[in-house]
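Researcher: Sequence recovery benchmark, item below. Answer with residues only.
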């Protein structure tokens, strides 16, 4: 039991005072939650009043109540994180959402509100009326610490307490876990300027590794929803990242900032109904990502599809009517003139009838005239079956799958790709088994499928009831195949557009990926995050042209973040040397903290690599409390998972990744296996190694059977 006469340390007194205030705010949060739940119950009750108006009221009330409950629940963790003590003696508390007391007085200011901007913008050089800025550190609803910055000592009261080493540096040293966390409490001035940039046009956030580009961009999405909710919530905000691993990493940030109405997609999941989870080999990815693929895909979308009939013969009265392959080719060109294939679907029967009627010469047939001719043929299964087989509505996935046939691919690629590229693409398609109905697309295939969606178009609404996969007379195996095709079919292109598009790791986008995103952001504002030095796309000029086309002349605002908060200076000094050796013009920001822990490099014989890696993992685990990544060349990932099976079982904070999958992530410790192989696996290998080295926040270890990369860096 504590002695009542023992003085309470100043920091504990401050924490206790803040806890009392936080308890009041959480009390109001609970009251707001109960009010929203009551509104939801009332809404459901309106559905029983017995008329249509009651159902409309129910839906509106339940929708609004559900949104409010979701926002309140999402903001519960670390609700109150900041306090400002102003020159005039006023105090402002800053939080994830705004909260008022029962008299409508402000208890907590939403971090996105103009009144909260000074929390991020005030500096010791320009305090903007702020004497002390305080960050509250919490676990759930419990305040566990405070960190202060005295910005205006001349106006500070004599009894003002200043606690801690500063919120930013304190946050940098804490262990990472498997998710990215909001930095809303520690945003710096240059970051805040990017967050609050004008919403129109395209805002580009650049800077080297560790400068907080991603988390700043996510805070910007939350800020835009706050300042213009009607526009961005109704039109939608799309956040696109490089991989599923990355999207899982960031998925909790926006809800923690009070936003739950944002669509998060990896590049392999941008197209509804299609999912790509694996990368193609770099050389294959470079071909599929090239803008030249547009011409190849255009040919595929306009060509006759496998299995379509090449002739038709019909006996009408005294005439034998024929459509051979050449005639059908001419009709195909006629239907496709200035129109997408599926949009022409409704004109197919009439076009065929016109061509057949032009051959009618017999007196008996001519006596009946054209109306009778049309009526006879459109009542005949032979004609209807031919028309349906010759011009079925096509789904983009089906056409993409047809390219898995080497002969089809070569026919469409002739004169578009080099012969060696065609051979490589055909080989890769076969080895991935994507030329069959069971094959799954790669991440690089998804933009190709999207391109085909727009090249094919959609069946006109008037024909929407005509099921292209009619099952009335199908055999059982045909019905099963039809069901699979319907399940895979992509959704309407009418649903693709958004009000705002945020794309991270934009330096990696291929021209085809820029085209895919450009369709989603044609009428949108954009936030673009990237660093050219970290690019894995080998042809930057081609990508730049596609980027310009996607933005379509929108005004651009550029912000550069200059301080590396992620890496220790010891780690980033090595990474910056890699950048300077191999990446001309690399943006190398300043690292702000030192740990005294230099990167370590272990060189062993090839047989000793995995034992050395296992030893290294155990040593790193003993030194850091947070996450550890073992980064391997892409071809060694399966091998690494097997070699480290015991460590993966024992350490749930251990991850095995290849270089591309580390994009946008960070770990307390990183162990790089065979760095020279990482460099050699693609044209962009040095850039990938640079990215990998900058994922480590505290400790970095490399293990390899060669050290050519290090010799070059140290030369």
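Model:
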């Amino acid at each position: 039991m504590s002695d009542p006469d023992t003085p309470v340390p100043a920091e504990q007194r401050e924490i206790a005072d803040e806890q009392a205030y936080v308890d009041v705010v959480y009390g109001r949060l609970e009251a707001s939650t109960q009010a929203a739940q009551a509104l939801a119950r009332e809404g459901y009750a309106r559905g029983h009043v017995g008329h249509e108006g009651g159902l409309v009221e129910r839906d509106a009330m339940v929708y609004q109540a559900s949104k409010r409950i979701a926002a309140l629940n999402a903001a519960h963790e670390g609700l109150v994180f900041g306090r400002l003590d102003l020159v005039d003696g006023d105090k402002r508390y800053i939080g994830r959402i705004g909260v008022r007391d029962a008299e409508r007085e402000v208890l907590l200011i939403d971090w996105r509100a103009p009144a909260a901007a000074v929390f991020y913008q005030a500096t010791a050089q320009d305090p903007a009326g702020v004497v002390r800025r305080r960050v509250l550190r919490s676990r759930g609803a419990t305040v566990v610490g405070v960190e202060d910055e005295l910005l205006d000592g001349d106006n500070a009261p004599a009894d003002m307490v200043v606690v801690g080493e500063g919120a930013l540096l304190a946050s940098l040293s804490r262990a990472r876990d498997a998710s990215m966390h909001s930095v809303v409490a520690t945003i710096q001035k240059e970051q805040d300027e990017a967050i609050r940039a004008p919403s129109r046009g395209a805002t580009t956030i650049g800077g080297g590794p560790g400068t907080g580009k991603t988390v700043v961009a996510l805070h910007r999405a939350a800020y835009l929803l706050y300042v213009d909710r009607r526009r961005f919530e109704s039109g939608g905000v799309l956040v696109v990242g490089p991989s599923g691993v990355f999207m899982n990493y960031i998925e909790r940030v926006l809800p923690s900032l009070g936003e739950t109405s944002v669509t998060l997609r990896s590049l392999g999941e941008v197209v509804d109904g299609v999912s790509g989870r694996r990368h193609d080999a770099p050389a294959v990815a470079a071909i599929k990502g090239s803008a030249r693929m547009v011409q190849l895909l255009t040919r595929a979308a306009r060509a006759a599809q496998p299995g379509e009939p090449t002739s038709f013969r019909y006996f009408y009265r005294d005439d034998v009517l024929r459509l051979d392959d050449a005639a059908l080719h001419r009709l195909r060109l006629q239907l496709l003139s200035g129109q997408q294939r599926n949009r022409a679907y409704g004109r197919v029967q009439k076009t065929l009838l016109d061509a057949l009627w032009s051959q009618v010469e017999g007196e008996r047939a001519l006596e009946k005239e054209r109306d009778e001719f049309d009526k006879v043929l459109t009542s005949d299964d032979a004609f209807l079956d031919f028309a349906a087989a010759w011009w079925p509505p096509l789904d983009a996935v089906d056409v993409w799958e047809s390219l898995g046939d080497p002969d089809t691919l070569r026919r469409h690629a002739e004169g578009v790709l080099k012969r060696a590229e065609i051979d490589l693409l055909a080989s890769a398609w076969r080895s991935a088994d994507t030329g069959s109905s069971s094959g799954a697309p790669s991440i690089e295939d998804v933009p190709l499928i999207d391109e085909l969606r727009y090249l094919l178009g959609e069946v006109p609404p008037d024909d929407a009831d005509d099921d292209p996969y009619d099952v009335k007379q199908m055999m059982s195996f045909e019905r099963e195949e039809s069901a699979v095709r319907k399940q895979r079919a992509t959704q309407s292109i009418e649903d693709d557009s958004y009000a705002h598009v945020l794309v991270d790791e934009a330096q990696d986008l291929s021209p085809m990926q820029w085209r895919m995103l450009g369709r989603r952001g044609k009428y949108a504002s954009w936030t673009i995050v990237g660093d050219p030095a970290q690019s894995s796309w080998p042809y930057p000029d081609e990508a730049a042209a596609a980027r310009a086309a996607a933005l379509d002349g929108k005004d651009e605002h550029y912000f550069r973040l200059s301080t590396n908060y992620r890496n220790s200076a010891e780690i980033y000094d090595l990474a910056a040397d890699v950048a300077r050796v191999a990446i001309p013009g690399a943006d190398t920001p300043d690292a702000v903290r030192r740990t005294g822990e230099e990167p370590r490099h272990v060189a062993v014989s090839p047989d000793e690599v995995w034992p050395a890696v296992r030893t290294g993992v155990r040593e790193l685990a003993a030194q850091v409390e947070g996450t550890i990544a073992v980064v391997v060349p892409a071809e060694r990932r399966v091998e690494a998972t097997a070699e480290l099976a015991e460590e993966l079982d024992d350490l749930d904070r251990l991850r095995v990744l290849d270089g591309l999958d580390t994009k946008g992530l960070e770990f307390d410790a990183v162990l790089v296996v065979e760095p020279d192989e990482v460099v050699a696996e693609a044209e962009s290998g040095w850039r990938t190694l640079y990215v990998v080295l900058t994922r480590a926040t505290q400790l970095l270890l490399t293990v390899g059977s060669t050290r050519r990369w290090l010799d070059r860096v140290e030369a």
